[in-house]
């Protein structure tokens, strides 16, 4: 998927509308930003545009203000943080397409950036309303999308504006396409995918798409119990989707028919209650007694997965292998993170809980790519077209 980037278009002296993902967590009491990573991640694209004398008009959503102005969701703290990180003032418009925004845009100079207010202060944003898209696009001559986290949404600022402007990607989306896209289109082999998380139903699309592409598929986490049941094992009180058992059966058969190695945990940490407190035992996957639930993979599974990962050259990981919110049952997830960090393979992490576990362990720098969008990376791995990427010009 070869999309044009900011490097492929002349931005000098041009007004450029940049959709960023400034949806940062705020402290409930002070309103201060508690984690500025998303803002830091957007800096390279913004800095490139400023260095090339563009007139930069930034926009983003923050939270869910439900289509009306709400000071709680104002981008004020973002403008402050951006000014700090860029070392120059980024003025915040008091509105999105209103008089204040218009005045700021009219006076913007080359090499300057301004920020529009939260695009979700307008209900039209999420409706991808063409009038709203037109109004937003009228501010600029070029549209840059750098918000991968919302690229799976067809909203005005993520896709609609591209109907009216030449549209290219920023560096963040470029990187997502290079790694996520590269893994799906042309992976170095062996290609191994690790899928975890709570439910098969959330990951069916990903499993179905990846089963055609990978050499080995490792399935762990809550999902594995539906697959155990499909093989006739007792799963006790483990999370299990009865209505997905037939599907799990057919996925097992499909993997076999395609010669894809499908690995499920061989042992599990089981316990009587869903908490970090009670005692646990380790049992084989076909020996889970009634009244017990599996909350993590066991040591033999970790070894088995390690063996399969050792020779991999491309690895995609999405979803934890146990209830990683509880320290006792985060071991499988953490061990897999350590294994990935030690390998020489291209390691791609599909956002969400697995990315958080890696971050917590300080292993982020050891991964080739950590996706900035949980939902978006999942849809990408499902092979779906993402509106925020589809709308960008091809090279
Ligand atoms: P997802 O958002 O689909 O990646 O799922 C993440 C959630 O899966 C986390 O909140 C985990 O607690 C949960 N999870 C992982 N393994 C299990 C398990 N064995 N039983 C119940 N929930 C699990």
In short:
By secondary structure, the protein is an alpha/beta fold. It is built from 14 helices and 15 strands. The strands form three sheets. It has a six-stranded parallel sheet with strand order 3-4-2-1-5-6, sandwiched between helices.
Give a structural overview.
With 395 residues, this protein is an alpha/beta fold. The chain folds into 2 domains: 6-172, 3-Layer(aba) Sandwich (Rossmann fold); 179-381, Phosphoglycerate kinase, N-terminal domain (Rossmann fold, 3-Layer(aba) Sandwich), CATH 3.40.50. It is built from 14 helices and 15 strands. It has helices spanning 37-51, 76-86, 99-107, 123-127, 130-137, 171-185, 200-211, 224-230, 245-258, 299-310, 331-342, 352-360, 374-381, 387-390, and strands spanning 15-19, 55-59, 91-92, 113-115, 142-145, 167-169, 191-195, 216-219, 261-263, 267-271, 280-284, 293-297, 314-318, 346-349, 369-370. It has a 6-stranded parallel sheet, sandwiched between helices. Strands 9-8-7-13-14-15 form a 6-stranded parallel sheet, with helices on both faces. A 3-stranded antiparallel sheet has the order 11-10-12. It is elongated. The mean pLDDT is 96. Bound molecules: adenosine monophosphate. Residues 196-198, 202, 221-222, 239, 294-295, 319-320, 322-325, 352-353 line the site of adenosine monophosphate.
